Amino acid sequence: MQVLTLKNLLNIAAWHDDLRWEPFRPGVDIYRFYQDGDQGAAAALLRYQPGATVPKHEHVGFEHIFVLSGSQSDRNGNHQTGTLVINPPGTSHTVTSETGCIVLAIWEKPVLL
Known about the structure:
Blueprint: E1 22-25, E2 28-35, E3 42-48, E4 52-59, E5 63-74, E6 77-80, E7 84-87, E8 92-97, E9 101-107, E10 111-112
Antiparallel strand pairs: 1-2, 2-3, 3-9, 4-8, 4-10, 5-6, 5-7, 5-9
């Protein structure tokens, strides 16, 4: 694996189309940084189209979400640009983005759907 450097990440809304996004869920694309096998840690950017939803899922390990642009909501509130959300193991939620957003997601372990 090579070193990955993304410059100007806080201004991703201006250049996100330069990345090779892949479909993840309906209305949500993913740009993977790394994934350690089927049960290990992973990190990626997630790009939500306006109105997109990620179905209810459970966190087996910690999940760190940093909202880089736009906003997303879950049962804990509406999370605007610049917000860091840490979901501990044993928590679950559905995520939606009414306006669209791009987030940095770091998973200690894969989530359960």
